[in-house]
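INTERNAL AUDIT FORM
Audit reference: QA-55
Scope: verify that the stored structure record matches its stored sequence.
Auditor: D.O.
Record contents follow.
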Amino acid sequence: MRPIRTAAVAVALACSCVVSPVAQAQPASPTPAPTPAPGPAPAALKTTIDADGSYAVGKDIAPGVYQSAGPVDGGACYWKRAAGDKLVDNALTKKPAFVQIEATDTSFTTSDCQAWQLTNAPMPPQPGPGDLLGALTQAIGSGMFNGGPR
């Protein structure tokens, strides 16, 4: 009976290997990367432009309506707004100036102007064609165009 008993044990062992699942080690779940420490806070955008130069909108200066008292030392104040390589707007003036710098502008350039200050004031109305004709009519009526030297 021994051979039968040995055979029975062998069959039982073989069946248990086939029926029972193979033990596996579960892979360790990946540990999340540590959260990076916060870096220094970004510098606040300038709301005053007090020197000649070009300024990146959204990086150096905030968009909005800026006002300047006009040119320095009786010269002419020049400013330019650009979006990429395209000129959006510019002016050369001897009077106080206003400019609306849009968030879509990429740069603002200023030369020979007094300091520009961000203001919450709306842009002043642009003169219409009637205003120009009125000024021209006044100049003609004052004798400004009554002929040159004789």
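Auditor finding: record pair retrieved intact. Helices lie at 2-19, 129-141.
Action required: none
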